[in-house]
# Entry
Amino acid sequence: MTVQHTLGAAAELRHLLGDRIVLPGDAAYEDARLPWNRAIDQRPFAVARPESAEDVVAIVRAAAATGLRVAPQSTGHGAGALADSDLSRTILVSLAGLRGVTVDPATRTARVLGGSQWNDVLAQAAPHGLTAMHGSAGDVGVVGYSLSGGLSFFARAHGLAVNAVRAVQIVTAEGRLVRASAEENTELFWAVRGGSGAFGIVVSIEVDLLPYADLFAGMLLWDVSRAPAVAHAWAAWTRTAPESVSTSLRIMHFPPLPELPPFLSGRSVVVIDGVVLAPDDAAAEIIEPLRVLAPGLDTFARIPSAGLVHMHMDPPEPTPAASTGAMLASFDGEAVDAWLAAATSTPGLSFAEVRHVGGAAARRPDGAGAVGSLAGDYLLAGIGMVPVPDLAPIAQAAVHALVHSMDAWRAPALALTFIDGDVDRELGFGGAAARLRELKAVYDPAGMFAAGHPVD
Ligand SMILES: Cc1cc2nc3c(=O)[nH]c(=O)nc-3n(C[C@H](O)[C@H](O)[C@H](O)COP(=O)(O)OP(=O)(O)OC[C@H]3O[C@@H](n4cnc5c(N)ncnc54)[C@H](O)[C@@H]3O)c2cc1C
# Structure
């Protein structure tokens, strides 16, 4: 694109969209381009900030008129996945201004505007004694998380969050606002449940809610010196844990920071946390084999469901980090030893996690979309904090080293929500990859949509 073309497209966008578009050089640009993951230095051609479905239609049409692409982004938690895309001719469509949730307690569903976060859903669902299939952090976007699979602490009991999606209102590459569900635009509905932002900009989504006003959940924490005993015990325990139980094992290395509580600041710890969907007595009996390891901290108790988003201690503010993940077919004694070695000795690795999956998450329900289940009983995830940009290569190398150290136990699958760029996504789309590509050619033949997980 020549300078004249660039100037022409920018002026045309300004003419078509007025102050709904932010261009480099505008005072607001530096702020508007920032994703939640502050390690990602995304510099799009422009940032559009719609406040209505009509605005989104206008933005997609303006992009088509000016020969630009569009990339939907709700929060930027998944900005690492988009980082491989060339954004120099792409309008980043920040949906942060399109938030709102309506709950229908009778049908146990929520209608959620496209840029909403899980905290928005929980605030409306909790008064009705309902909760949602959110992940570990409340400020993750509902659309980005759900349409790429969505792995919650309800996953072993209730499956992937993507299967709770009932319908989407989506702006297509033609600039049309359509509804896709099991009854309307059924192929698009199949594709978007996995294909996500590669098929359009979702301006609202309807999801099923869960009937839990409260639940038995919490964490157990030990000093990292106990990691071998804890990790082997957890791995053995997961082999017979019922599907009502979804838990995670982590080794976490915290720098000494005044904003951290003393039990974390400057420490390395091993943590098990999760949810047991059972009455208190039965739940306590289920986790007893972990409690006998005498954790230094034990918060397992019945809590209001809306409190679950605080259990995993995810950062409450935008944070710079590198991350990646893999699915494991098993987590046997040798695998535990390999994981312990990598988790405790890889420079630049902040957190090493293994989540127990399987159960309902591994079963594809009738009527599911492109992604409907996750093969592999355990999810492996690594996170490296990037407090200064120079440390990004070390953090990247660390998370990939963790995954490579577990190659011998990998399952042929990927949880899309846990992978950033630089990974072959074919495994994440599984058997749906070829059909997704065919439908991409039908719904977005010019490749208008740049997505965190491209379909190409
Ligand atoms: C702290 C943290 C905790 C997490 N915990 C979990 C967890 O427990 N379980 C889990 O499964 N994942 C988890 N994730 C991963 C998270 O689900 C993904 O990063 C997900 O993509 C985030 O969605 P988002 O909309 O917030 O992010 P964004 O970066 O805004 O979006 C990611 C992608 O989703 C698509 N998208 C977003 N909004 C729209 C829209 N309105 N229309 C069309 N496409 C859209 C786009 O393709 C975009 O590139 C976590 C991530 C972080 C950083």
Observations:
- The radius of gyration is 22 Å.
- Residues 72-79, 81-82, 95, 114, 135-137, 140-141, 143-145, 148-151, 196-197, 201-202, 314, 417, 451-452 surround flavin-adenine dinucleotide (CB under 6 Å).
- The chain has a mean pLDDT of 96.
- The chain has three domains: 3-95, 101-211, 215-428.
